[in-house]
Amino acid sequence: MKIATVAVALVLALGGLTACSSDNVDCTTDACTVTLDRGVQAEASVLGLKVELVGVDNGTVKLDVGGTTVSVPVDGSTQAQGFDISVQKVTDAEVVVRIRRS
Questions:
Q1: What local confidence, expressed as pLDDT, does residue 39 receive?
Q2: What end-to-end distance do the CA atoms of the chain give, in Å?
Q3: Residue 75, Cα to own-chain centre: how many angstroms?
Q4: Measured distance CA(75)–CA(87) in Å, rounded
Q5: What was the pLDDT predicted at 5?
Q6: Cα atoms found within 13 Å of the Cα of residue 6, Cβ hemisphere only
Q7: Please, are residues 61 and 45 in contact by the beta-carbon 8 Å criterion?
Q8: What is the distance between the alpha carbons of residues 76 and 21, in angstroms, rounded to a whole number?
Q9: What distance in Å separates the CA atoms of residue 92 and residue 21, rounded to the nearest whole number?
Q10: How many CB atoms lie within 10 A of CB 64?
């Protein structure tokens, strides 16, 4: 019981650092890096947004960010829902995306 209480207190104390939903998300105070597996319905909750990998085609990553579909070139960036979204890496196995508040 004490461990659960400490865990809840830690989550509340860290606030923005815990604005991520899973192990595939690494957050700092102003941005999150999300690693999405390819070949599955990959998604994560990041900074209050649902981010889903729609697909990758010819060096462009298509993401659904909070209900808005965006296309982001590898090593490029775009904006959606008040966030800057950049693609840091694309491999056969995964896509790494960085999301930060605009």
A1: 84
A2: 40
A3: 16
A4: 5
A5: 34
A6: 3
A7: no
A8: 25
A9: 24
A10: 16
Q: E-strand spans in 28-76? A: 31-37, 43-46, 49-57, 60-65, 68-73
Q: Which of 25, 94, 84 is nearest to 56 (CA)?
A: 94
Contact predicate 72/61, CB 8 Å: yes
User: In Å, how far are 31, 33, 63 from 89, measured between CA atoms?
Assistant: 16, 11, 14
DSSP state, 74? B
Cα–Cα distance for residue pair 48/60, rounded to 1 Å: 24
Digitized pLDDT (tens) for each residue of the chain, 102 residues in all: 444 333 333 333 333 434 454 678 999 888 999 999 998 889 998 888 899 999 999 999 999 999 999 999 998 999 998 999 999 999 999 999 999 998
CB 18 within 8 A of CB 64: no
Single-letter amino acid code for the residue at 13: A
